[in-house]
Amino acid sequence: MKFFKYIITLLLLLIFTISSYSQLTPPKPLMSQKVYKAFIKNHIDYPNISLKQKQQGVVTIEFNADLEGNITNYSISNSVSKELDSAAISIFKLILWKPATSIGKPIAGTSEFQIKYNIKSFNKNAKKRGYFHIPAPTYGSDTSLKIYQFKQLDTFPKVILTSNASSIQQYIYNNLTYPDAASKLALSGAVEISFIIETNGLPSNITPISYLGGGCTEEAIRIIESINWQPGILKNKSVRSYHTITISFQKNENRDGHIPNQQGSGI
């Protein structure tokens, strides 16, 4: 009898351990997995010396994050070369993270960031995105990686418009597609998107604040991903800045963009 009680206790302990482990989630990017992959493709750069020496491989960075998702320390656990390791760290430092969780509660946690460097894939991706190396800012860059609100800046970020658009509203109107699924469901509403405008003018950490089904949220994200900026300026340096844009979808209209002047930016 004691033996069976012992076995049952062990089984319950095992079940509890497995259950607890299954509810332990490591730190994750604030972006969705799909947006995260697009972020990597848009921000990856290949140092010229690495291209010349045909350096390739996977750089792995192990890191710890606190209860709020802030990185407390990191280290290279799989190195490819000094140049590619440095390039990987530059991308890693731009990512905003969700904290690890245990049974739904934030905890300090450990995870890893991996990025694959392959010359053939990089060349193909560079051709598709329209630029080979990441564009350098006109001004020197702030290296603190601090993120500023628009009201803190000396010069607000400005949208780099295509030739067929005279304003960001018109750009969105020209490029936004009302998804078929949303049309069939007769959905109307707005999607609010938050993102960071990096010192190189590329958007990052694109995250929905409010959602709309039928593919509208995904379409709003796609539009934000396609917009390049002149970065915000503070004390004659390009800085990272936080912005939100609201894009509305109206039934019986193929395209519509509505962008309230939420931060007094004049955009």
Structural account:
This protein is α+β, with helices and mostly antiparallel strands. The chain folds into two domains: 26-134, TonB (TolA/TonB C-terminal domain); 147-249, TolA/TonB C-terminal domain, CATH 3.30.2420.10. It has eight helices and 16 strands. It has helices at residues 2-22, 33-43, 48-52, 82-92, 119-129, 168-175, 180-184, 216-226; strands at 24-25, 28-29, 57-65, 71-78, 97-98, 100-102, 105-107, 109-117, 140-141, 147-148, 158-159, 189-197, 203-208, 229-230, 232-234, 237-249. The strands form five sheets. Strands 9, 10, 12, 13, 15 and 16 form a six-stranded mixed β-sheet that branches. A hairpin with a 5-residue loop joins strand 12 and strand 13. The longest helix has 21 residues, at 2-22. The radius of gyration is 22 Å and the shape is globular. Mean pLDDT is 88; it is low at 15-22 and 254-266.
Task: Outline the secondary-structure elements.
Blueprint: H1 2-22, E1 24-25, E2 28-29, H2 33-43, H3 48-52, E3 57-65, E4 71-78, H4 82-92, E5 97-98, E6 100-102, E7 105-107, E8 109-117, H5 119-129, E9 140-141, E10 147-148, E11 158-159, H6 168-175, H7 180-184, E12 189-197, E13 203-208, H8 216-226, E14 229-230, E15 232-234, E16 237-249
Parallel strand pairs: 9-16, 10-16
Antiparallel strand pairs: 1-6, 2-5, 3-4, 3-8, 6-7, 11-14, 12-13, 12-16, 15-16
The percent of residues in helical segments reads 25-40%
CATH superfamily of the largest domain: TonB
In whole angstroms, how far apart are the ends? 76 Å
- Assign the CATH architecture of the largest domain: 2-Layer Sandwich
In percent terms, what proportion of residues is strand?
A: 25-35%
CATH topology of the largest domain: TolA/TonB C-terminal domain
Class based on secondary structure composition and strand pairing = alpha+beta
Output the number of helix runs: 8
C-alpha Rg, in Å? 22 Å
Sheet with the most strands, sense and barrel status? 6 strands, mixed
Shape: globular
Give a count of the beta strands, DSSP E runs of length 2 or more: 16
What order do the helices and strands follow? HEEHHEEHEEEEHEEEHHEEHEEE
Unreliable spans are: 15-22, 254-266
Q: Would you tell me the overall average pLDDT?
A: 88
Q: Write down the domain tally.
A: 2
- CATH class descriptor name of the largest domain: Alpha Beta
